[in-house]
Design brief:
Helices cover about 55% and strands about 0% of the residues. With about 850 residues, it is mostly helical. Among the domains are: about 210 residues, Alpha Horseshoe (Serine Threonine Protein Phosphatase 5, Tetratricopeptide repeat), CATH 1.25.40; about 130 residues, Alpha Horseshoe (Serine Threonine Protein Phosphatase 5, Tetratricopeptide repeat); about 150 residues, alix/aip1 in complex with the ypdl late domain (Four Helix Bundle (Hemerythrin (Met), subunit A)), CATH 1.20.120.560. The strands form three sheets. The chain has a two-stranded antiparallel ribbon. A two-stranded parallel sheet has the order 3-4. The protein is elongated. One of its GO terms (molecular function) is ubiquitin binding. This is BRO1 domain-containing protein. It comes from Daucus carota subsp. sativus.
């Protein structure tokens, strides 16, 4: 039995690294700033000054790369610059067109043939070059780790996988755009970056193979991992052998990749032969060893010169190991096993085990969280966001309707089955309908009725009349008056408990589904709230429809959960329907329903009567408050009127006394010339300044054409009274025989009363059951009051509960005056409408 040896250990030290592309200097600051000023504003350009300076510094650092720079810092610089370019792409149109930024030209040299270069007036070449350099930096990082240690091999493998991820991202997203046009380089083509991706995966898998050998894994495992290394190298070699790459790379590249592919295929044959030897499958072992030797021989003949010496040494070592094991296997087969050696064409492909994969770099390059130039939002991005928002709203609306319909269906179906009320009634926990339970706080009805009873005798009588009806509201809690569902008196199989338990369990499951629907609806709203794809729209370089399909797919899982919830509810409702029918057959549900409905109607009638009485009480209180205000105002007006008349009376007495004191009998000869004014003629004595001062604080009103307050007796001759002429003034005393025409009186307290016997109208405060005690001229325009107290106190009563007792005609003398009402005319609305 042969022992495994590290046949290819020297070959593991030989790997390839990629060098960065070179560029020429370009000024990004000035063209971008000018574009912001022209299309937005100078203020916006000033606000974005820091971003412009940061971008300028990124480009300068890219141009000044040197071998002394740290690879990790270089990697971070390239990532940051690429994100910045992604943010720029959607905001700054860079192209030769007139209305675009047409003064920028990016120049980059080929990484494998430095004499070749490309120059383009778009951002795609810049992005492709930055990605290429990032992949190159990752390859250099992988080559720089010490693979003699376990951690070094792991770190190297991860770096090569990241390099493969960068090249794959470049191939899938940028390479096609960068290669459009006449000026381009082959190193950023789809074919080249695809080849580099396979090469980096081959070297990552090779690191895993090295670690497997170092751990002393079985020959079977080592064979599978080695075979996958060879497959990756074979894929890279296939791309190198065809146009356009066949003439682009140096011979050393071709030789290295070809020898590596053959070497690891032969290594897999060698390791697999060891496994076959242990199983004593000598015939296939011989065939596998010969296949490995043939691969090495063909690779040596066809590969160009220029391979590294370490690779050739590993080749020689592996070839010797294969020959030695083959010679041993042939001898043993000839002497012991005598097995038939199958032809190479009949052998199955060697099993392979892929331990590495292309590292996804989408999150690394995601510029949706990039703050640079975030305030600039093009119209195209805003419109695309609006489209996506409509799509999300449609999903949310549809799913919300499904959830609401499910809940409504549950409510209706349970209502039809009278659930869970029937179960609660059986357990003595009857519930009042929500509409009744929320009417006016039932538990406080008794206290409110007691307070209302003290307000009015008639209402108190109504309360007494309906107390038996409303006594049902005194029960605490109100649900205690509801009937309960009793168990059957006789039971044949005594399975009512099982039926009840199954139905209650199903209802609990239904409640759980309802709670899940509520949670799903909240989850939908939360997803909608957090779903902001504007940053991704700003950095998207592909089709918006593709982005929308990807983003809207986030809602697929919750939509499926909603569908499952509704479907489960349908099945559960069918089960509950069957259980409810069985429950109704065992328990006397129909009699219980009739008794319950009767109780509901009693409670409803009691609530209606209570609300009626309460409304009438409230209206009565409003009536009394309004009447109290009106009486208070009337009292004040009467007091003012009496005081004013008293002052005027004293003044008239003083005037008469002054006139009598000044009588002269010597002028009797002139008394015959004195003429009394006719009825209605103004003859009012002039008042002295002292008299005016004395009554200055008293409200006085002039009524030049109003009726006289009193009618004085007619005198035949007044020769003993000195004549005083008062043209156009109204006398205090006028003959009773004549009466001036009635005129509308101005509001106030100084107006004269109408003569007795004139036509009257109802006062603002009148009582309907008796003749009004106060009258006023019919054609006198008076302000009204807010309420007429002679009509029903408030709507709803079939009688004037609040009308004062009627006054018999003639029981009260008419007053010598009328007082204008203090309130404006009554409006047509309110509780006291005529």
């Amino acid at each position: 039995m042969a022992t495994p040896s590290s046949s290819s250990s020297p070959a593991t030290q030989i790997m390839l690294a990629i060098y960065e592309k070179k560029t020429t200097a370009v000024d990004l600051y000035r063209p971008l700033r000018n574009y912001i000023v022209y299309n937005y504003s100078e203020r916006e350009a000033q606000n974005l000054e820091d971003d412009l300076q940061t971008l300028k510094q990124y480009r300068t650092d890219i141009e000044r790369s040197s071998p002394s720079d740290s690879l990790s810092s270089r990697r971070d610089l390239l990532i940051n610059y690429f994100r910045a370019l992604t943010a720029i792409e959607s905001r700054f149109p860079i192209s030769p067109e007139t209305d675009h930024i047409n003064t920028l030209t990016f120049v980059w040299h080929d990484a494998f043939k430095n004499k070749l270069k490309a120059s383009q007036q778009n951002i795609h070449l810049e992005k492709a070059a930055v990605l290429f350099n990032l992949g190159a930096v990752h390859s250099q990082l992988g080559l720089g780790f010490d693979r003699g240690e376990v951690e070094g091999r792991k770190n190297a493998s991860h770096s090569f996988m990241k390099a493969a991820g960068v090249f794959a991202f470049l191939r899938d997203n940028v390479a096609m755009k960068a290669c459009m046009g006449n000026s381009t380089t082959l190193d950023v083509s789809v074919e080249c970056v695809g080849m580099l991706e396979r090469l980096m995966l081959a070297q990552a898998q090779e690191c895993v193979f090295e670690n497997t050998i170092a751990k002393g894994s079985s020959a079977s495992v080592c064979s599978k991992i080695s075979r996958q290394v060879g497959i990756f190298y074979e894929e890279a070699l296939a791309a190198l052998k065809v146009a356009p790459l066949s003439q682009h790379f140096e011979k050393a590249w071709h030789s290295h990749v070809q020898l590596k592919a053959a070497l690891f295929y032969a290594e897999a044959c060698y390791r697999y032969g060891l496994e076959l030897h242990e199983k004593e499958e000598i015939g296939e072992e011989i065939a596998r060893l010969k296949s490995g030797l043939n691969a090495l021989s063909e690779a040596r003949k066809s590969s160009p010169k220029g391979a590294a010496q370490q690779l050739i040494d590993a080749y020689t070592i592996l070839e010797g190991n294969l020959n030695r094991n083959l010679e041993r296997a042939v001898k043993e087969n000839d002497r012991v096993y005598l097995m038939r050696v199958p032809p190479a064409s009949s052998l199955q492909p060697l099993p392979a085990f892929q331990m590495v994969k292309t590292m996804p770099m989408t999150e690394v390059f995601d510029a949706s969280k990039e703050k640079m130039f975030a305030s600039l939002v093009p119209d195209s991005s805003a419109k695309a966001l609006s489209r996506y928002t409509e799509m999300v709203d449609d999903v949310i609306r549809t799913q919300a309707e499904i959830l609401q319909q499910g809940s409504e269906l549950t409510r209706v179906r349970l209502k039809e089955m009278d659930l869970p009320e029937s179960i609660l009634a059986l357990e003595g926990h009857s519930a009042l309908p929500t509409a009744l339970k929320e009417d006016d706080r039932l538990n406080r009805f008794a206290a409110n009725l007691k307070q209302a009873a003290e307000s009015d005798t008639r209402i108190e009588r109504s309360v007494r009349e309906h107390s038996s009806l409303m006594s049902i509201l005194d029960r605490h809690p109100i649900e205690s008056v509801l009937p309960t569902l009793g168990r059957p008196i006789m039971s044949l199989d005594a399975n009512e408990d099982a039926i009840l338990g199954a139905l209650k369990q199903s209802l609990r499951q239904l409640e759980t589904l309802g709670a899940q629907r509520a949670g799903l609806e909240d989850m939908l709203k939360e997803m909608k709230r957090k779903d902001d794809i504007l940053p991704k729209l700003m950095t998207s370089t592909g089709s918006y429809d593709d982005l929308f399909r990807k983003e809207i797919s986030k809602y697929d899982q919750i939509c499926q959960e909603i569908g499952k919830n509704v479907e489960a509810q349908e099945h559960l409702l069918l089960q509950i329907q069957a259980q409810s029918n069985e429950f109704a057959a065992v328990f006397n549900i129909e009699d219980y329903k009739a008794s319950r409905e009767k109780c509901f109607k009693q409670i409803e009638a009691a609530i209606a009567k209570y609300q009626e009485i309460k409304e009438n009480i409230n209206e009565g209180l409003k009536f009394y408050v309004t009447l109290q205000d009106a009486i208070t105002n009337m009292k004040q007006q009467c007091s003012d009127f009496v005081m004013t008349r008293s002052i005027q009376c004293r003044e008239m007495i003083e005037e008469v006394q002054r006139q009598m004191a000044g009588l002269s009998f010597q002028d009797s000869k002139n008394t015959g010339n004195y003429n009394y004014p006719a009825v209605g003629q103004a003859n009012q004595p002039q008042r002295t300044s002292s008299q005016q001062t004395k009554a200055g604080n008293i409200p006085q009103q002039s009524h030049p054409q109003s009726q006289p307050y009193y009618s004085a007796p007619q005198q035949p001759n007044t020769s003993n009274i000195p004549q005083q002429s008062h043209p156009q003034s109204q006398p205090y005393y006028s003959p009773p025989q004549q009466q001036p025409p009635q005129q509308p009186n101005a509001p106030g307290y100084g107006q004269p009363p109408p003569p007795y016997g004139s036509q009257q109208q109802q006062p603002p405060y009148h009582l309907p059951a008796a003749r009004p005690p106060y009258t006023s001229p019919q054609n006198q325009q008076q302000p009204g009051v807010p309420h007429e107290y002679g009509q029903p106190a408030y709507p709803g009563w079939q009688g004037p509960y609040y009308n004062a007792p009627g006054q018999q005609p003639g029981s009260m003398p008419r007053p010598p005056y009328t007082v204008p009402a203090p309130y404006p005319p009554p409006n047509q609305g309110g509780y006291y409408r005529q």
